[in-house]
From TrEMBL:
The keyword Nucleotide-binding applies. It catalyses: D-glycero-beta-D-manno-heptose 1-phosphate + ATP + H(+) = ADP-D-glycero-beta-D-manno-heptose + diphosphate. GO terms for molecular function: ATP binding; nucleotidyltransferase activity; phosphotransferase activity, alcohol group as acceptor. Pfam families: CTP_transf_like. SUPFAM superfamilies: Nucleotidylyl transferase (SSF52374). It is an enzyme of class 2 (transferase). Keywords: ATP-binding, Carbohydrate metabolism, Nucleotide-binding, Nucleotidyltransferase, Transferase. It comes from Polynucleobacter meluiroseus. This is D-glycero-beta-D-manno-heptose 1-phosphate adenylyltransferase. The keyword Nucleotide-binding applies. Residues 32-143 form the Cytidyltransferase-like domain. One of its GO terms (biological process) is carbohydrate metabolic process.
Amino acid sequence: MTPIPAPSFDSKVCSPADLTARIAQLPRPLVFTNGVFDILHRGHASYLDQARQLGASLVVGVNSDASVKMLGKGADRPINSEADRQALLAALASVDLVTLFTEQTPVQLIEQVRPDIYVKGGDYEIDTLPEAHLVKTWGGKTVAIPFLYERSTSTLLGKIRS
Ligand SMILES: Nc1ncnc2c1ncn2[C@@H]1O[C@H](COP(=O)(O)OP(=O)(O)OP(=O)(O)O)[C@@H](O)[C@H]1O
Ligand SMILES: O=P(O)(O)O[C@@H]1O[C@H]([C@H](O)CO)[C@@H](O)[C@H](O)[C@@H]1O
């Protein structure tokens, strides 16, 4: 019987220990974004596709379950575990590498990755983000991608619960 291979996207999920070596293999300009990505929706898929088009590779930093708890999104969040959230992002063609961060902000991770372009959604005031100031220190830039389709995890959860 032909053995069934493991999902090929699993290899896009990178442990913090392997991160520096994996980043070195990615083509530049390298785009980085971060977030919770709890219940993946169309807004996320479009956002990540547009982010990828800004450069030659896209790395996504995902909040660990413990770090989501620090963000005040609700006691029951995240709905999906960090392993599941990483796997779904890795399954997207636009995403080249996914890794986890455990702090309240991705600043330490960004220092390690040193992206050429930092991306966040239009729901953020880009100029006020510490991440934007950080990437500027090595000549990187920050781009805001417009919030689309009025989709969010919180809205979906509201619909499910009502
Ligand atoms: N509809 C959307 N259009 C464009 N970008 C989006 C959209 N929803 C989320 N993003 C971006 O995706 C990233 C991850 O967002 P996040 O996981 O907070 O999504 P969310 O669905 O708004 O979640 P929540 O409702 O829990 O805040 C962020 O950078 C955010 O700006
Ligand atoms: O999915 P979210 O809530 O958009 O992701 C958060 O983004 C924060 C942002 O980078 C603030 O500057 C970050 O601090 C937080 O850890 C989440 O990733």
